[in-house]
Amino acid sequence: MTFFREGLTELQPRKSFERYVSRDFIEHKPDVPLGTREATIAYLEKLIQSLPDAQWEPIRAIAEGEFVVLYARFTPTPGAEPFAIADIFRLRESRIVEHWDVVGHPPTQRLNPNSRF
Predict the structure, then answer these.
(1) Domain assignments of the chain as residue spans, ordered by start
(2) CB 16: neighbour CB atoms within 10 A?
(3) Beta bridge partners of 95
(4) What whole-number distance in Å separates Cα of residue 23 and Cα of residue 12?
(5) Residue 50 CB-density burial (10 A; 0-12 exposed, 13-18 middle, 19+ buried)
(6) What does the alpha-carbon distance between residue 84 and residue 56 come to, in Å, rounded to a whole number?
(7) Three-state SS across 71-99?
(8) pLDDT tens string for the chain (117 positions)?
């Protein structure tokens, strides 16, 4: 949670990666060239620069063994419909070594009255 909060909520991905992410980190997000630690930092820095008013809000976290799943709300601009994000992290010796994500785009219509969050 501290990694996510520092990196995205406080908009300091490089600082957060230096503290919590292994040098041999593997990124599985298809939008990140090469899938490396440095490429992921650059991707997040560019995303933050292009969406300076974006908000990341962690909703809940689940941990089992070496995996942590973080469910979050991502709002790209004030007033925009939020995305639902599930980040999956694999840890080794208390450091993040691998990441996957699942992105749920805002729904085009709401048939279900229950909130995603």
Answers:
(1) 2-104
(2) 22
(3) 92
(4) 17
(5) exposed
(6) 10
(7) EEEEECCCCCCCEEEEEEEEEECCEEEEE
(8) 999 999 999 999 999 999 999 999 999 999 999 999 999 999 999 999 999 999 999 999 999 999 999 999 999 999 999 999 999 999 999 999 999 999 999 998 889 999 899
Give the position of tokens 């995305």. Answer: 83
* Architecture category of domain 2-104 in CATH: Roll (3.10)
Q: What single letter denotes the amino acid at residue 108? A: T
Across the chain, the runs of DSSP E, i.e. the strands, are 21-27, 55-64, 67-75, 83-92, 95-104
Of 54, 40, 42, the closest CA to residue 8 belongs to 54
Q: What does the block give as tokens for 58?
A: 């962690």
